[in-house]
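Researcher: Batch entry, complex prediction.
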Amino acid sequence: MVMPTGSQSLRQADDAVAGVHRGAAGSFAGVRGAGQRPLVNKSCLAERRLLGRMLEALGNPPLRLVLWDGEEVAGALAATVRVRILDRGALLRLVADPELHFGELYVAGRIEIPGDLAEAIEIIYRALPQQRLPGIREKLVAAFVGAADNAPPKAASNIHHHYDIGNDFYKLWLDERLVYTCAYYADPAASLEAAQLAKLEYVCRKLRLRPGETVVEAGCGWGALALHMARHHGVTVKAYNLSPQQIAYARERADAEGLRQQVDFIEADYREIRGRFDAFVSVGMLEHVGTAGYGELGALIDRCLAADGHGLIHSIGRDYPHGMNPWITRHIFPGACPPALSQMMAVFEPNGFSVLDIENLRLHYARTLEHWQERFERAAGTVTAMFDEAFVRAWRLYLAGSLAAFRSGDMQLFQVCFARSGCNRIPWSRRDLYAAGGDDGIL
Amino acid sequence: MVMPTGSQSLRQADDAVAGVHRGAAGSFAGVRGAGQRPLVNKSCLAERRLLGRMLEALGNPPLRLVLWDGEEVAGALAATVRVRILDRGALLRLVADPELHFGELYVAGRIEIPGDLAEAIEIIYRALPQQRLPGIREKLVAAFVGAADNAPPKAASNIHHHYDIGNDFYKLWLDERLVYTCAYYADPAASLEAAQLAKLEYVCRKLRLRPGETVVEAGCGWGALALHMARHHGVTVKAYNLSPQQIAYARERADAEGLRQQVDFIEADYREIRGRFDAFVSVGMLEHVGTAGYGELGALIDRCLAADGHGLIHSIGRDYPHGMNPWITRHIFPGACPPALSQMMAVFEPNGFSVLDIENLRLHYARTLEHWQERFERAAGTVTAMFDEAFVRAWRLYLAGSLAAFRSGDMQLFQVCFARSGCNRIPWSRRDLYAAGGDDGIL
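Model: Structure tokens for the complex:
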């Protein structure tokens, strides 16, 4: 239940710029901790020039890099946001691989950002030069290979890495239903609780659920959507998840709510789904599938969806194909790979599906993250006691970085509704999604 | 103003199965007319077997092929829809290339369908085996080449072919505003007039137009949308179109409505667009662009859209990439190429755009075509007098075939809303699109 902590990796870390070799994934601080700083001495011109070149390569974000000796290197004249680099080793590591080492150094306390962390990261995201046009290599990779290793054994370890660090931890800062995906703020001023409830209801409306229908959910988290569908829409649900802790919690909830007959929580990979259902839904799983698995996922949906069934996939995405930040994939979400829409279509187009509706809820994820961030900071003391300071810094960075990514447009949130090609039992319009009321006036 | 008629091609046609060589595009009947049937004689077993094999290759649609001598070949036991093949030459031509020659033979009156034409074609569409997974060749073509020749000179001739056959002709069966794209039926029972007006308003709402903004429209038809935006939303519009007849009509309308100061109709290719605008809109043009031109179109939008501008592209599309029916591209819409969403993303993803909203209005296009078909049939006598019988049959087949394509899911209608990547002046939700009222309660 406890993640490897920073102290483990301290023993393996050294100050060399060369790669950090560590066996176990999940150690947040890949470099020597703040307590072991080398002797403070003057930075030299060559070092400041290296930083200057790094800023150039990053698109000259308006940041002010403040060195351990008070010297400064600014990415733009008007730069106001300050990033403090506390030792020479941190500087060298940063210029060697800023995308990876920024995170590791921040977690180790060797880089500090005195102001708003999300704002600083947003500034970096917005400045980054974007390589949007794929080269020949990218096209060949896209056409013939794929990305991310998420074959079943690896998938289980990837999921375990993030989701099995303790329900108690997530209870500290998620909403009461433990919904760990983008909420839907019908009203931007809504509470997190209200917005997560509205999201569950919004997904049900988009699926046009009718009482008595059967639903399969791939990647059900702590079960909030499955339970909501059963309770408020009278359907029966089979819900799959690889995380033992989440499944155990979801079953307890089903028992407590008297929904065990209607909702079957199954601890298994989504590739184990068997049977035929009126609806297929997956919220926040596609990001973990990897583009190489999209054809297989589409074929699975083809096998399990009724002739006039409806489907919805809710996933973090991209405006164009590009990889994840390496710090995130190494320390937070191994195997994560949010797709561009062109990539996502590999689920639908080769498998006989028709895309009916795509909505981009990017700003709703930014709002969700603001709420999570606020709650996380309120619980930071408890989290430190449960884990350690490095863990808190890692999650602080992860939440702020995600917030920055959604604010800056580096990440998107797509809800895709689909049905079988040629199926005419499809909604005439989207007006009913926004009708007042519903079962309990949620939206 | 008059299209080449069937009689021209009769001279060039012969009964051989080998290719029909004709210079001018636009001759509907590529084969000998009904009046010149060869002597009636008995069909032989080999001929009926050829037809049987053709039906097999077409996925055994439940059709009953009735030959000139009363013999029948059925694609399925329960087949009820009858297709009459009136002579041996028609049979041979049909089995040689059913996709191309069905249309030509129907127009020549050598194939007859006694019942509902659209229903018969829908049966064919629904049976067709679908080659959805691209092979290596298709992937390479998709990655490195493109499709359809729509460089400017060819684009002009392609557009002239379809849109300059006479405003009087289109006035016979379009709505009063001459909107020749998919309507939006807020109420499925709405009239064509109401539904086209609702579509114009729906597009404006999706663009979130505000008074005083500037809009550029690529491919403006007879100007209905540009005029509606100016009149009802207080914007100024530059609207581009390659068709001289449409532009002339649109300018007359602008004069008559006193909107000439607000709407500038420009007879030019969309690639001539210059300037910077708060909104980019294109309704029913992308189908004519060809996938090879998508990158260039996206780059153009990038040049002409303001930093916080909004865009909307409305286009016929596909559930997966595949070509147009060859009869349609030869005789009705040269250069037409409706894209799958994966292909359409080539406009947005490499050019710094973020897709906000995609809606599939397939069933609305089917309803629109039902209205057009009904009005066209009512005007068939007038159309015959303006052109000839072959022209009427060609357009009857085109409208019925399109209706069948939208009913069966062979074609889709996508409305794609987008903004620049990272632009945060984007709608919080879609709820306002469905708010009652509006300027004149249109939706």
